[in-house]
Amino acid sequence: MTRNRQRLLMITTLGLLMAMIIIMTYIPNLGYITTGVFSITIIHIPVIIGAILTGPIGGLVLGATWGLTSWHYATTLGTIEAAIFVNPLVSIAPRILVGLIISYTALGLRKLIPLEFPRHVVVSIIGTLSNTVLVLSAIFLFASSGLVTFNKGLSTIFAIVISLNGSLEILSAALIAPVVLKALSKVRSQRKPV
Length: 194
Hints:
By secondary structure, this protein is mainly α. It has a single domain, classed as Arp2/3 complex 21 kDa subunit ARPC3. 77% of the residues lie in helices and 4% in strands. A hairpin with a 2-residue loop joins strand 1 and strand 2. Helix 2 runs antiparallel to helix 5, helix 2 packs across helix 7 and helix 6 runs antiparallel to helix 7. The chain is globular.
């Protein structure tokens, strides 16, 4: 494949995944599934897929897209959770880092885990875990500078809820992202070179 075709494929892939992130953000219960106490995020799955496929630049772009849409979405809601994510240090910065962590983890594990499927499972788990850890850390470091100030009891409850959500998010990413990547790999291998 020529360099121009690779660049075009990367731009097209990023554009499609960015559109998917935007759609998943603004269609209710598609990217942020809310069920009572739990608010499970699955928008990280397109970020994982894209960061693995397109590398660090793609991870950066998709992480930034996710962070910006997360921040904007939070400004349209009136919940306590949304008030926390109005702070860009909580909503945008961690997501940019997550995109980079996913892409560099995928690159770093190529020699350590030569088989794609198990490597993608591990990368999906690390990517999702990094989102949970970075967002929780950002909440405790920066949320008090936003619209909500945490006391110790509220912050403990919030940490437990997010940790439970994080477990469900890890499970969904570890199941979905590797399967999608495997299907995309089959499609690419069956495609005739032009």
